[in-house]
Specification:
This protein is mainly alpha-helical and 102 residues long. Helix content is 59%, strand content 0%.
Length: 102
């Protein structure tokens, strides 16, 4: 049986750092409170690693600075549930700080 010839074509996978998505991931990780948050964040990290492109810096900056007024429809469809969960986490975080002060 003859040996198999190796493919000469290299798999070209652009190993880009998705710094903007990673910033969002880190923000979410800081606000994580329970197992549900941790599971969602874990799945988000897998999605970040598998994604081909990063999102624009301005979109992430706007989302992090003012999550309540951010438009989630500008994000790709696969990222929208994670963006919406980030908005939920920020609202929950603010309401917990408010009740802790009372």
């Amino acid at each position: 049986m003859p040996p198999r010839a190796k493919s000469t074509a290299k798999k070209v996978r652009k190993n880009t750092k998705k710094t903007n998505l990673t910033r969002l991931y880190n923000q979410m990780h800081k606000m994580s409170l329970d197992a549900v948050d941790n599971e969602i964040i874990k799945r988000f990290k897998i999605l970040i690693d598998a994604s081909e492109e990063d999102v624009p810096k301005t979109d992430i900056d706007q989302l992090i600075s003012d999550p309540k007024s951010a438009d989630t429809s500008i994000f790709p469809e696969g990222l929208q549930p994670y963006v919406k969960h980030f908005v939920f986490m920020t609202k929950r975080d603010k309401s917990q700080k408010k009740t802790a002060a009372v």
